[in-house]
Records
---
Amino acid sequence: MTAATAKKKGKTWINVRRRWQLYLFLLVPVVWVLIFAYYPMLGVQIAFKNYMPRQGIWGSKWAGFVHFRTFFTSYYFSRTVGNTIRLSLYHLAVNFPLSIIFALMINIIENPWLKKRVQTIVYVPHFISTVVLVGMLTQIMNPVSGLYGTIYRVFNPGAYPTDILSKATPFIHFYVWTGIWQNLGWNTIIYMAALTGVDPELHEAAQIDGATRLKRMIHIDLPTILPTASIVLILNSGSIMNVGFEKAYLMQNNINVVYSEVISTYVYKVGLTGATNQFSYAAAVGLFNNVINGILLLIVNGVSGKLSEGANSLF
Amino acid sequence: MAQTIANGKKVNKIKNPAEDRVLYAVVGVILTLFILCILYPVIFIISASFSEGTEVQLGHVYLLPVKPTLDGYKAVFSHKNVLTGFRNTFFYTFAGTAINVVITLLCAYPLSRRDLPFRGFFTFLFVFTMFFSGGLIPSYLLVSKLKMINTVWALLLPGAMSVYNMIIARSFFVNTVPLELLEAAEIDGCSDARYFFNILLPLSQAVIAVISLYYAVAHWNAYFSALIYLRDPNLQPLQLILRNILLATRVSLSEFEDPDLMEGKIGLEFLLKYALIVVSCGPIIALYPFVQKFFMKGVMLGSVKG
């Protein structure tokens, strides 16, 4: 060790001592993150073991990659991974362009009072819980008492539609479009923020030159939000393998399970329900998913960081 | 711009060309349709909850309540589990948010200080958990090992902090509170802890409001942790009880405190479900217009790097 580094090292420790109060602040959060985030990470070894409740995670015997092989060769692999990716891509393909168009449309409203009211209304569904959303869906889609049955009878008097929620194929459309209903408005906030940064003089100048509002929307507003949009797109594609448990599980039934079984619901079902708790197998499936999610997020974060020169990267 | 007043005189307004009026009309129609798509199901559910059970069951409700009654709400408030669920959810929301906010601020403050030795290491320690986690099974086994299954702690401690919200708070401290304040305070001999309590906190009310609301809404709407950790119906939050009622096909009379009151009411299960949806969303929707600006502020803060 050279004298310079030794001196620097000594200085660091002096600084550590001087900042002891800051470390006292950090104590509780660090203990929390070690227990509730890092200890379970050590627990992923269960995926490589044959878990026996009596021996615990650490005492159980190693099994190698058996559980991963079982998953990869079972037909649940293509089903769960396929459904997960299908739901994500469908949602992304609809949600991404629509939220840009929607933001541009709200931005056109010139009356500030009206604009604010419109924003207030379209944000509301974001705060409805998943349980309530799915509950609303099942009530409204009820062929007899629901809105769906009522409207159906306006066009076909006296007839009753079939129960659309008990069919398999509509599931994916219901899943995606209820998501649009709930979050389209909310997703425009980030674009509205970018749009407030547009210099009004730019619009005035274009207007004097005879540009219509549509032209100004395409040549002024759209380019303004494109950088934000590219970041949003990149970040969203990082969660393609990450379909949340809640909605898929709530909307699931015996018939649509072919399309609604995603990785997270599968892990829950094999791991925590049913007679035989297959902890090790479920943990292996979960670990496979987490590793892919982590890698995707890292790639995406790196790419978006490069594009925006660090301004939108998490680190 | 055209409406600005210059020297007390109205500046001449640039006339909207015809194409613009077409565009405004098209956008107006589309936005109106979308707003109707949002409002109509909501209005339908509210109306159905106030209607008579038979009418709801036969699908006679279109827009306004048919033969208005309060039967649905009577059913909700005499249902055994619903009141317990409400009480539990209030507890989880208040206690959970309090724990969340305290731990988040304790973490965000030191990490916002550029002069904290090993700041990069500690930041990484937290941010890494956003990219990788142990997953459901190891977390479940940990909670069960800590003997927290079927206790309120299972809903309060494992999710005691969201790293995302911590970064929002840290960014706020870094970007909005001037560094000169810290320097001045240090020259005056103010300790790091005192700076936090006496200077930083009073200046950070906006971000505290933002993260409190984020946490509170998350607690109010959460059901997954309760689904896996809580079997005791006396501890279950409203969302889990809602799920059991909303997804059940029929309602048994024994679920009510006074079964006779509900006896013979046709379509009661529909009314109960509609009224439950209204009652469970009520507090959040009623509060929402007043706190809307904080939520939007949070989205902005979240997109700024600290």
Note: The first helix of chain B runs from residue 18 to 50.
---
Amino acid sequence: MLRDRTAIVGIGQTRFAKHLEESEKALACRAVLAALDDAGIEPHEVDALASYTMEETDEVELAKAIGAGDVTFFSRIGFGGGGSCATVAHLAMAVATGQAEVGVAWRSRKRGSGRRPWTNTAQQLPTPAQWTRPFGLLRPADEIGMLARRYMHEYGATRDHLFNVALACRNRANQNPDAIMYERPLTREMYMDARWISEPLCLYDNCLETDGALACVVVSAERARDCRRRPVYVHSAAQGLPAQHHGMVNYWNDDPLTGPAWTAARQLWKTAEFGPEDVDVAQIYDAFTPLIPLSLEGYGFCGRGEGAAFTEGGALESGGRLPINTGGGGLSEGYVHGFNLINEGVKQLRGISTAQVPDAATCLVTAGEGVPTSALLLRV
Amino acid sequence: MDTMTAEGLLLPWPDDDGEPFWEHARSGELRIQACAECGRLRFPPRPCCPQCGSFDDEWRLMSGRGRLWSYVIAHPPLLPAYAERAPYPVALVELEEDPRIRLVGTLTNSVRRPGAPWNAVPPGRLRIGAPVQAVFQAVTPEVTVVRWALCNG
């Protein structure tokens, strides 16, 4: 079993901005070298690499630029932001099984200054896009908006519930000088008056468009004890592709509102020594606000249909029942395919978050919901 | 093969499994792939049956009746031809024959108006559960798409 046999011992990131001058490759190298420096590990010791299939800087380019040694494990995870936590999971498995000793996971993306992926019509037409895109369901916001409308209809969720999510993330970003929305408070009036993107989703239900890169370093628990930072153990890790799931357009099964989070959660909790009630803080993938109530249900923080009500009464805020996305998340810190959620989870368990949950000892981190996903339970 | 209409709307780009759907649509028929062995309908089309594993299939004629399962109203930023039509509703319709088969499409206000503008149905008239009927619009000489007429619309 993977339980606590590996740890994240280094984290690194670049600045986040709408536009950064440097290339994605240069940003990737900066984030990786910063993470190795944080860990106190020399680049030539790196022998395992993991990233997303959408990552543009490949293993060859990264390894030779940072001065990695002989690399004996490398892995890519598909499905966009669904792969974030799986990068760490794959490294943890490689290290725990002796395939490698020092693993680096990273994501570098110029989503702020680059083109929006959905405008690339050459890539959007094959399956299953032939069934959706020609009819104007062009963007991820439209695809998730469809599920959000149904969710609101079935369970009485309202825009105020979605606002609760957006506000919690924005409030944490207002405490985080590295967040893009650090100096930009959000009010209910701003939210309710915002322009629509895909009704029922407005501007503030959508994540940011960000340039930036992040990385982290995974080693064995034994080695972690000799590193310069407090080890953050990978307690449990899971991927999830449910039966008859269809990705962002999960419209063709019995229950489209039960997504990959449910599958990942079952595996995650099966191999964990604690349950949802023991999670001190959570970093939940927030490309769109409705993913939070859906994920709260999937990961077992509440029952089916109760995710929206869970957000009431400041539950997601500091001091609430389950503080989430304490760096601001994809909605308000920066959207780097969820990798900032992993690093923020590490910061919480080191006790250095800008919105620190007192004595946080356990953290759930999730990857994109609505696509084949992954999740991590971290602990100290 | 064209990837867009003259107005700049994306055309479906069928894969091998999806091609029969579009051929039937050109004939004005809504047909869904079904297993020739166990009879289960499946969508999107695929090479074999996830229930029994058979590679034998048939394309079963649907009534075209369905209900609105959900919808969004898309606003810019969008591709240019779509931005010109925005805001427009997009429907997700569950078919009468099997509510797990849900088709995405634009809406029209009458079965007699398959070519109605995308915004022909005012958003205030949309209700989840509302009955709809498939209509067929030839968007190019080669490509016909299925749209959904709001019944009593």
Note: Chain A has a mean pLDDT of 96.
